[in-house]
Amino acid sequence: MKQSQMLIPTLKEVPADAEIKSHQLLVRAGYIRQIASGIYSFLPIGRRVLRKVEDIVREEMEKIGAHEMMMAALQPSELWKESGRWSTYGPELMRLHDRHEREFALGATHEEVITSIVRDEVKSYKRLPLKVFQIQNKFRDEKRPRFGLLRGREFLMKDAYSFNESFESLDESYNQMFQAYSAIFKRLGLNFRAVIADSGQMGGKDTHEFMVLSDVGEDVIAYSDTSDYAANIEMAEVVMTYEKSQDAPKQMEKVSTPDQKTMQDVADYLGHGLEAGLKSIMFKVDDRYVMVITRGDHEVNDIKLKNLYSADIVELASEERTKELLGTGFGSLGPVGVGEEIEVVADHAVEALVNVSCGANEAGYHFVNVTPEKDFKVNQYADLRFIKEGDPSPDGQGHIQFARGIEVGHVFKLGTFYAENMNANYLDDQGKAQTMVMGSYGIGVSRTVAAIVEQYNDERGITWPAHIAPFQVHLLSLNPKKEEQKQLADQLYDQLKSAGIEVLYDDRKERAGVKFADSDLFGIPLRLTVGKRAGEGIVEMKERASGEQSEVDQSEVLSTVSEWFRQ
């Protein structure tokens, strides 16, 4: 491709709203342009990269027998109401009405659509297992789109679905997808981890996220310092054992704590550490109100609370509703004297405590010398806190460390959730109706492009892995006005193209400094520069990632370039 004929608008300055490297570089190098908040267009060289990532995804999906299709992005609300997600998915689902006032949603995901298709078309066990996938734009009304392609309102996604006869068969499909995803991200050259995760709004159980390690990642990964264990921090199990304090319980006492707003304020005022106080937080769990108690130095994990109750929705109770129930706001909450209409659940660490402090459900007052079960009742104890660095690893090997990650893929065992709600059945070998068992598997394709840039860049621009770059070679003619330079560059361009090498030919009438700067920004793996020694048939070759340079005779350029890519 001749650069003078392509739409590749580069920028010298970093866009004001671009906070992270991938956003900055993809915009500056002319790969993407923002159309609205969280909505981007891929320009020609950006589309080339996107297509190469898609091709790797397709190849690995086809290796495990998944077949590509394309589903409608505009989905009738009736399907979502069948599954029950129309009322539970949340404001991220983009909803609209047509001219006849019928309700639709723009596809955030396609479980409902594919389930409706398969239930109507697949009736026999002989057609199972079945695996299909698509690569399509998805739409989610993110509250705060940010970080360029990492959190957008429209994005390109590969979603796949498996339909199986049994949970054992689902395990096989899930493992195939898991291995395919691992192969995809390895081929893309990414440093990633597969971590235990929460299924969230997708439903189902047993799920893993594929996380690209990056300091700009919005997710925290808990991993063992001596084993392969890794989990999303929300799902990491706490396996610590707590020894019961041997102190004799004292008489509970109510004390004044004026103007003490936070746990740390109260602990300092009362002269004890955070671990000697109780943290009490009110949640609305579906239609019930639950008070969750943790040690003062621990944080409540609402995902664990949701899973404890198998709830659809878990949210903090409003302060207004909390005052109606307990007579006080958030700063003075505690479990002492709580009525039966509110369930009290506590983290395992609380069970070992003796003579601690807690809110007195009266503004400006706390109780001291409080002991669980003596001074208040707990409906049940469970693992309800976030794991901390230094805690024992749940697999029994080593201790927990934290890292940040960008989620690029997610695999779910959905089970029968959608099939039961939407009547997706098949006839087994005895002619009896059985419920299909499903899996769902997604890769954020456009997000993966950004994740690659986060791991492959330097102070000058992007440093693409060779097989993902928009072109293999960037050919520069420094002064096309000089006949010997233009002639040699033209010859090399034709030779490289004829050999099947993807080459971007910078034939523009620009200063050499501009061409070099743009070339570094683009991140094309190999640069060939035709300059002052063109009359001697000498070409400069430079590797983008390493910066290594050499001079090559024009007669050896093709063989040298071909060998470089073979290696």
UniProtKB/TrEMBL annotation:
Protein name, per record: Proline--tRNA ligase
Gene behind this protein: proS
Record's comment describing the protein's domains: Consists of three domains: the N-terminal catalytic domain, the editing domain and the C-terminal anticodon-binding domain.
Residue ranges of every copy of the Aminoacyl-transfer RNA synthetases class-II family profile domain listed in the record: 33-465
Recorded catalytic activity of this chain's protein: tRNA(Pro) + L-proline + ATP = L-prolyl-tRNA(Pro) + AMP + diphosphate
Source organism: Halobacillus naozhouensis
Keyword field contains Transferase: no
Family classification: Belongs to the class-II aminoacyl-tRNA synthetase family. ProS type 1 subfamily.
Top-level EC class as recorded in UniProt: ligase
Localization, UniProt: Cytoplasm
Enzyme Commission code: 6.1.1.15
Pfam families recorded: HGTP_anticodon, tRNA-synt_2b, tRNA_edit
Alphabetic keyword roster: Aminoacyl-tRNA synthetase, ATP-binding, Cytoplasm, Ligase, Nucleotide-binding, Protein biosynthesis
Role summary: Catalyzes the attachment of proline to tRNA(Pro) in a two-step reaction: proline is first activated by ATP to form Pro-AMP and then transferred to the acceptor end of tRNA(Pro). As ProRS can inadvertently accommodate and process non-cognate amino acids such as alanine and cysteine, to avoid such errors it has two additional distinct editing activities against alanine. One activity is designated as 'pretransfer' editing and involves the tRNA(Pro)-independent hydrolysis of activated Ala-AMP.
Molecular-function annotations in GO: proline-tRNA ligase activity
Assembly, per entry: Homodimer.
Superkingdom of origin: Bacteria
